[in-house]
Amino acid sequence: MQKPERILILGPESTGKSTLAADLAAYFDEPWVPEFAREYLEKLNRAYEYEDLSEIAKGQIALEDELAQKARKFLFVDTDLRVIKVWSEHKFDTVAGWILEEIERRNYSKILITDVDLPWEADPLREHPDLEMRQYFLEKYLELAHRSGFPFQLISGDRTDRLDRSVKFISG
């Protein structure tokens, strides 16, 4: 496995991905990659468009690769291009071919998928607060994790449970 081992954290909006990434980084004393889309969208001052997704994807890749240079054993990645794929297909009915190619090229040692069992937290950048849509997106991420061939686990429970379950899965 390439060094560092990249641990991908996927899940619908408001399911604790960033919190879990930060908690794992603190536990293992390793870096974590924040979601580039948040920074990009906060500076946009307009609704995002299809072309913005390619810019977000490029930024996410660059940030992940930059932080991988600082990691010793693990790099915790808060979302990857699978999120861009899902959102692009959902909102624009298409996804850039280079993004699909890059998804196939990039490797992760394990994937953690955050469950929808946490309460929704309002945020101007989030779009789908209803449980039905959160469950819809969860199924999309589970399907992509299954197709990836990488070991994956659904992570549920409160913050402490999620960290404990994640550490066991990563260490096991």
How would you describe this structure to a colleague?
- The protein is built from seven helices and five strands; from the N terminus they run E-H-E-H-H-E-H-H-E-H-E-H.
- With 172 residues, it is an alpha/beta fold.
- It has a single domain, classed as 3-Layer(aba) Sandwich (Rossmann fold).
- It has a five-stranded parallel β-sheet with strand order 2-3-1-4-5, with helices on both faces.
- Strand 4 (110-114), helix 6 (131-148) and strand 5 form a beta-alpha-beta unit.
- The protein starts with a strand and ends with a helix.
List keywords for this structure.
five-stranded parallel β-sheet, alpha/beta, 13% strand, Rossmann fold, 7 helices, globular, 172 residues
How is this fold's topology laid out?
Layout: E1 5-10, H1 17-28, E2 32-33, H2 36-42, H3 50-68, E3 74-78, H4 81-92, H5 97-105, E4 110-114, H6 131-148, E5 152-155, H7 159-171
Parallel strand pairs: 1-3, 1-4, 2-3, 4-5
Helix pairs in contact: 1-7, 3-4, 4-5
Please provide the count of β strands. Answer: 5
Overall mean pLDDT stands at 93
SS field, number of helical segments: 7
Low-confidence stretches: none
Q: Can you tell me the CATH class?
A: Alpha Beta
In what range is the share of β-strand residues? Answer: 5-15%
**What is the percent of helical residues?**
40-55%
CATH topology name: Rossmann fold
Q: Roughly how many Å apart are the termini?
A: 15 Å
Task: Say which CATH homologous superfamily is assigned.
Answer: P-loop containing nucleotide triphosphate hydrolases
Main sheet strand line-up: 2-3-1-4-5
